[in-house]
Every structure is written in C-alpha cells, then in structure tokens.
Amino acid sequence: MLTTALLLTTLATATAAPPNAPPNALPATPASAPAEQPAKKEKGIDAIALPLVSYNSDQGFTYGGVAGAYLYAPGHNPYQHAISIQALFTSRGQQNHYLRYDGPQLIGPMRLEFRLEYRRELRSPFYGAGNVSAQDFNGDETQERFNYTKNAPGAWVRLRGRPWGENHPFQSYVGYSWRYTEVDPFDTSVLAQLKPEGIQGGATGQITAGVLWDTRDNEADPVRGGVEEVSLRVSGSATGSRYQYAGVTLSERRYWQLGPRFILAQRVTLDMLFGQVPFFEWVNTGGVSTSEGIGGMSSVRGIERNRFAGNIKAFTNTELRYRAFDFNLFGAPVIAGAVGFVDLGRVWHPGVENGEWWKWHPGLGAGLRLARRAAVVRFDWAMSPESGRQRIYLNFGHMF
C-alpha cells in the first residue's frame, strides 16, 4: 500500500507529532498526515514533510502535502515550538488548508495552540434536520438536492494547562474560534426549500472552555485508562458572531486490555446546542477532539457523512482491537492488527419528526491497523444495516 510505505519510510528518518485525535501536537486533522510525539531533546530542530494520499467514501481520494518543524530548548518538554502547514485537496472538490502552531510551556506552565485554516466544499451535504430526515434519499450523494457549496475560512486559539502538575490527570483549557461561512445553495436543494437559520451565512465566533480527566497510558494508541471531558462553547454578538447560541459536549473514552493482544475501546459522546443555531453547526461537536455527524468516519461509519443533523447529537463507538503481531522496522517496533466495530448514533431537533426513542442508526464493520510508535494507519470497511450501503475509509490515527 503506497500510503503505508510512505508513512513508515518517512517516520523512520524523521520525528513528528501525535495524530489527529486530541490536537495536542502537530499536525492534527482527520485527513492529516500521520505523526508522532518527538522524543525529548535538550536543543536542536527536527523537520518532516509528507505527501498526503488517502481515500474514504465520503470525500473520495485525498491528496496534497503536510510539513512540520520542531524546535527544542532546555527546560521545554516535549519541545519549545512546533509549526505545521498543510495543503489538502480531494477528488470531490473539497479543500482543507491550514497553518498551525503549538507551544508547550510557552506561558509559564500553559500550552498555547492556534490554527489558521481555509475550507471549501463544492458539495457539502445537507439532508435537513432530525433523525428521520430525507426519507427519499436513494444513496446518490452527488445530487444537488442534498448538497450546497460552502466556503469557510477560520481560525482558533487555545490555552491548555495542568494546574495540579504535569503528571496529574486533570487538564483545563480556554479558547476562542472564529469562522466566516459562505453558503450557496443549489436551486433544487433541500436547503433552498427549507431555508433554515444560517442560510444567509456569516460569522460564528465562539468562546470555548473545558476540562479533561486523562488517565490513558498512551495518548495516540492507548491500551488502558480513559479520558472524560466536559466542554462549553458560547457564541454571540460579543464574540463576533452573527448568531446567538451555546453548546455543551460530554465525552467518555475508555480502554480495557483483555489479555496480551486484545483491547476493548469504547467512546460515548453527547452534544447539545441551544439558541439561534445556524444549520451548518448542527453536525459539529465541541471539545478538544471534534467530530462530525451523525454519519461519517468520525461518528458513525457506514452512514453517509452528516446524514442526520440536529441540535442534539448522541453517538457511541465500540471497537475490539486485536494486535496480531509486531516486527521491527528501522529500529522501532511496528504493530499490525485488526479491529471489529459497532457504531450507533441519533439526533433530536425541535419542530421536526425524530422517530421513536429507540430509532438509533447503526454502522458496523471491520478494519486493519498498522502502528509505528505514535503513528497509526487505519483501513476500515463499514456498512449501514438500515440501507445496506457500504463504505471504505483509509486514514491516519485511531477514530478515538
């Protein structure tokens, strides 16, 4: 596999940062390049540049490049400064470009992170609101009826810290994000017919804050422990937002080692939005590691990306991970394995039909994993038992 070969060969000669899940280091985005936490150095610099080659059924083929550099200095762990830049395109007309900085212990014990980015989607999905929306959808995601064009430049900045010491599991953070979303609906689209809040586009500025309790043994590829998170985001005229709304996210990730080769991994997420919420925020969750859905490679695999949207979203992911064998490559261990998974999700939205309480949308499947230290390549096949449609995802980093 070309992507795997590029990943392992490049990581054997350079040092990078952990993958996308919690953005603690660089680069970090679901379609970003693989990365590792650099080993502690007293001084010096590491740099890496990687091509991006991946595929998933939601976005098609992904191509582009990412580069990162790490500056080390005495008294700064794991590094003093880190910067990364990405240019990413997909075969379905999407773009995701960013510049990101990470400065651990930059302001006393506090960690400063910021990111500038530009996103463009010629076909951004919208099926309406609620848990049983667009019942006439036949599986053709290219239809103008279920899409619109979106441009969304933005930026965010965050301060994180461990107020009770570097080895204590408690973390807290506060941040600010801003995005300007341009919305261009197709004339025959569901979006043009429904005209929900947010169709006029505009700015969404958010103040964010949250706390985590992190007992994982390894952030990038955990075997035991877990992380609990509570996150709050608020938007209004005082934050530079056209819309007045707030959101709360509750998340639990837990890992159990079942013998020497099996790991049971579980994630549960509940996200709630209140107020004048623009429709393009219905699919987003808050927190350090954000997700989209319901539907897609970050929420419920096997279902079309953002198939179900609403003010309240809940989803759960269960994975049984199997570490089949390991071998050494360029002086570092590589673990090859497999995974079986079951995902479930649903939404609730005011003023529309949401179905019975038990109407959860399932996705199930299996995949392969290849991990070298903190870098993980994942290949997943998934299907929706409701529709019978199947999807493929090739990406970097565990889903959670």
TrEMBL record:
<keyword id="KW-0472">Membrane</keyword>
<feature type="compositionally biased region" description="Low complexity">
    <location>
        <begin position="26"/>
        <end position="35"/>
    </location>
</feature>
<dbReference type="GO" id="GO:0019867">
    <property type="term" value="C:outer membrane"/>
</dbReference>
<dbReference type="Pfam" id="PF01103">
    <property type="entry name" value="Omp85"/>
</dbReference>
<dbReference type="InterPro" id="IPR000184">
    <property type="entry name" value="Bac_surfAg_D15"/>
</dbReference>
<protein>
    <submittedName>
        <fullName>Surface antigen-like protein</fullName>
    </submittedName>
</protein>
<feature type="domain" description="Bacterial surface antigen (D15)">
    <location>
        <begin position="111"/>
        <end position="400"/>
    </location>
</feature>
<feature type="region of interest" description="Disordered">
    <location>
        <begin position="18"/>
        <end position="40"/>
    </location>
</feature>
<feature type="signal peptide">
    <location>
        <begin position="1"/>
        <end position="16"/>
    </location>
</feature>
<keyword id="KW-0732">Signal</keyword>
